[in-house]
């Protein structure tokens, strides 16, 4: 028999024996490696959590910016509408609908009559300045302003 052949048969025909590893890992080093892997995993999870929160906040900010732009556009449209309603032509048209007429610049008068309902239902109006007594010496803010701004102004009280 050939020695090489016998050696070949001899090597593969034996049951395999397991040898211990040449380098042995201590339990302390293994615990350190496992702990390090757990810390890296925790850091990765925290990073992903922060990244998803930041993405959600960016999306929310984008939505609010779109809403702000829409509201700014709406404000501009409303300002244009208010300007149209405050134009001279629109004001004159509304004054005519209310029955207002042009006042003479030489003879300004203000007529005040605001009835206030009492318990019996009868309307009560403020007495003229002559009947008010002590109040006649101190004009109200509107009377004072008109007396000082309009030369020759006379307060006209409505007849009851």
Write the layout of secondary structure elements.
Blueprint: H1 3-13, H2 27-85, H3 88-98, E1 116-117, E2 123-124, H4 129-132, H5 141-149
Antiparallel strand pairs: 1-2
Q: What would you note in describing this structure?
A:
The chain is mainly alpha-helical and 160 residues long. It has helices spanning 3-13, 27-85, 88-98, 129-132, 141-149, and strands at residues 116-117, 123-124. The chain has 2 domains: 25-102; 103-160, no CATH class. It has 5 helices and 2 strands, in the order αααββαα. The model has no long low-confidence stretch (mean pLDDT 75). The protein has a two-stranded antiparallel ribbon with strand order 1-2. The radius of gyration is 49 Å and the shape is rod-shaped. The termini are far apart.
């Amino acid at each position: 028999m050939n020695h090489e052949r016998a050696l070949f048969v001899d090597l593969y025909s034996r049951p395999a024996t397991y040898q211990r590893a040449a380098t042995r890992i201590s339990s302390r080093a293994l615990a350190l490696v496992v702990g390090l892997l757990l810390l890296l995993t925790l850091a990765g999870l925290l990073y992903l959590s922060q990244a998803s929160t930041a993405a959600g906040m960016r999306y929310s900010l984008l939505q609010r910016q779109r809403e702000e732009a829409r509201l700014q556009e709406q404000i501009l449209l409303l300002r244009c509408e208010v300007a149209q309603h405050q134009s001279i032509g629109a004001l004159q048209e509304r004054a005519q609908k209310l029955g207002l007429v042009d006042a003479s610049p030489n003879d300004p008068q203000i007529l005040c009559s605001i009835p206030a309902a009492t318990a019996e239902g009868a309307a009560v109006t403020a007495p003229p300045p002559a009947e008010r007594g002590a109040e006649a010496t101190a004009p109200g803010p509107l009377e004072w302003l008109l007396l000082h701004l309009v030369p020759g102004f006379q307060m006209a009280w409505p007849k009851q």
